[in-house]
Amino acid sequence: MGIKIKIALLTISILVIGGCSNSVQPDKEMDHNMEEMDHSTMGDMMEGHMSHDEVVMLNDSTGENELRIPSILEQDDEEGVVYTVRAQRGKTEIFDGTETETYGYNGSFLGPMLRLEKGDNVKIRTINELDEATTFHWHGLEVAADVDGGPHDALEPGEEKVIEFEVTQEASTLWFHPHPHEKTSEQVYNGLAGLIYIEDENSKSLGLPTDYGENDIPLIFQDKIFDEEKQLNYSAAKNDDGTIGDTLLINGTLNPKLTVNKEKVRLRLLNGSNARNYTFKLNTGDSFVQIATDGGFLNEPVTLNEVTLTPSERAEIVVDFSQLDTEKDLALINEDGSILLPFEVSVQSETVSRIPGLMNDFSLTEEEMDLPVTKKIELFGMMDMVTINGKKFDPERIDFTQQQGVTEVWEIYNKPDMMGGMIHPFHIHGAQFKIISRNGEAPPENERGWKDSISVSPDETVKIAIQFKNKGVYMFHCHNLEHEDNGMMGQVKVE
User: Fold this and answer.
1) Element (H, E) at 236
2) Is the pTM of this model over 0.85?
3) Count of the separate structural domains present in the chain
């Protein structure tokens, strides 16, 4: 028996023991699973897990195509319904001269930007024009569970639903995507994703870059694998441990470049990939400032040379191109040096913007820090053997309950396996939370703001303080989308 198979056997043994219920003897459960596993399956599991230890590099962007900027969704003329969002199939010319079959919102690929303002009473008509069930999940929005768009809220082909909510949270960059049970990864991969901007009086008073598409740029990063026909063949590309590709699309643009003026430019980064993590930095080594997390502004700008985002995390950064050496080639790159987005710097801008020293009044109170841990989450496993607290998702099971408006402390632990484990991006629906600590230490400065998703490394313990404003049943899960579809998800009922 080869060494890979031996390690796989040991790994599977630990996974099964960690994931079985108290009513089943571990050795019997393990024997049953072992009998079901052939060498090919075990080899696939090894290969899937190892692909995240040695992640395939992205192809460098050649910069031959100007970055596409998502359109802004216009309000409907119809009285009583403010916006309409349609999930659709289409064909998109990602590669010159070739049409790729894709999914999109109000178009063939990706979706428009939905701009909301704090205090708005919003109505959205959601329509499923696909030939399969889907949902419309408003990632990061603090809304009632019955409009959140989790797996319980599936719309069948041809169905529509009008949802209503009040925008109660502060300025932030959120997004929307599908969340059907066991189909989220494929539908996002095929193109269902769109942005939400929330504005408020504070955001409009700060003097930050706000000219959409000029110095306020949305950037949706997604890696793909295209087959020989340049199609998104998800069934062929799928990896149960997280699908990772070699071809980067930003806002659906292949080989993008971004033309900017010599001014401060605000980049709203969204990791919209199924599983890939990104560490963003400038190829020149120059610094930038981070101004916002998932759910709002930091109190003060934080100067960084790089920022890492796991799937579904967002960060807003400002790059001052008037202070950079524009005689050099400038680009946003990944940690391994892959060129993600080349910049072409043109003329000096007449636009005046600034980065204020104080942007928010976010705080983690002593009372919150002293609260006892009331909920413990253990993330564990790989491939289709992933669990939370030893269990797979059951839509009929409520894992936790919490009182509306009451702050509780959750402790999230990423339990290593025989191979060391992998990062799990952990997301909670319907609320923004505060990070109390990572392994007992205060979080880094650029994480001291509102979050709805958090990266948890192997053997790391993270504590968060979370309060739900609304009632209902909400999901919590790993945002590696294949892990989510494989059952790494639970439910909290807010009463």
Assistant:
1) helix 234-237
2) yes
3) 4
